[in-house]
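Quick one: C-alpha cells for this chain, please?
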Amino acid sequence: MAKTDFKTFAKKIMRSQLALPITALIIMLIVNVIITPTFFKVSIQNGVLYGFIIDILNRSCELIILAVGMTLVVASSRGTDISVGAVMAVSGAIIVRLLGSSYDGYAMAPALAIICGLLGGMACGAFNGLLVAKLNIQPMVATLILFTAGRGIAQLISSNENATGIILYVRMESFKAIGGFIPGCPIPTPIFIVIVFVLLTQLLLKKTALSTYVQTVGINPKAGRLVGINSTLIMFFCYVFCGLSAGVSGLIASSRIYSSDANNIGLNMEMDAILAVALGGNSLGGGKFNMAGSIIGAITIQCLTTSLYAIGVSADQLPVYKAIVVILIVLFQSPAFKKWYAQLKLKREEAKKGVVAK
C-alpha cells in the first residue's frame, strides 16, 4: 500500500508544472556536491552564517524578486520586460543620491529615500505598461526603450556639476545592513526581504481574484473583456508591479556595494529573470503561471552560476552556458518534443499491454 501511495505521489509530481524546476534544482545540487564536497556545510564565522548554500540563497535574492515580477508580466502580456536590469540601476541611483554621497551633501531619511527609489521603479514600470497595455506595442519593443536608456538615466541621476556617470558612495552605515547583515542576526538581510516580498505577493494573488484575472488576460484578453475584466488595467498593473520588484532588487544591489554603479547594477539580470520564469515551467506564451516554479528556477540559476565559477569558468563565459540551458528549455517546451514524448509514452504503454497479454 505504501509503495502504491509513493508511486501515485511520484506520478503527480512528474505531471505537475514543478517537475522541471525541481528536477533541474536537484541536478544542480548534485553537481555542486560533486564539485565541492563541503557544499552543504554551514558554519558561523564572525557571528554570521557562512557556507556555499547560504551564499547561493543570499546571492539569488535579487533574482528571485525579479522573477516574481517577471512571472506576472509574462503571464498577463505574453511578453517579457527586458528593462528590469536598467530599472534596478535607476532605483539604486535615486536611493543613493537622496541618502547622500561622498561628492555632495544631499541627505534624506533612509525610509523616505527608499520609498522614492521604489516609486522610481514603479514609474518605469508604469511607462512600460502604458506602451504595452494602452498603445498595444509589443512588450519586447516597448521595454527596449528603458533597456537602452535606463542606464543613461541612472548615470544622469548620479552626476554632479563636475562629472556625469560617477559612482556615488553611501555615507550612511545603516544602509549597508539592507544588503548585508543586521547587527546580531546571523542570517543575511536580503533573505528576510525576499520572504516578506514573496509572502505579500502570494497574499495578494490568493486573497484577491488577481491570479485568475492575470491568467485569463494572458490566455485570451478579448475573452477577458467580454466577461467584464479590464485587460488593459491588469496588464498595466503587472508592469507596475514588475517595476516595483526591480526597485526592491536595485535597493538590495546598491546596498551590497554601498554605492550606485549605473553600469553594473542589474547587468544582464533581465536575461536571468526570463530564464528563471522559463525554467520554472511557465510558458513564455502567457496564461497559467506558477510562482513557486519561478522561485525555484531563480535558485537553480544561482546554483548553476556557483558551480561554473567553482570549475573555473570566467564571468564573460557564463552567458554561453546559460544559453545552452535556454536551448534545452525551449526544446523541452516545444510542441514537437511534447508530441514525440507523448508518442514514445504511448508506444511503451502498448508494449507493456502486449507483454501482459502474452
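The mean pLDDT is 87.
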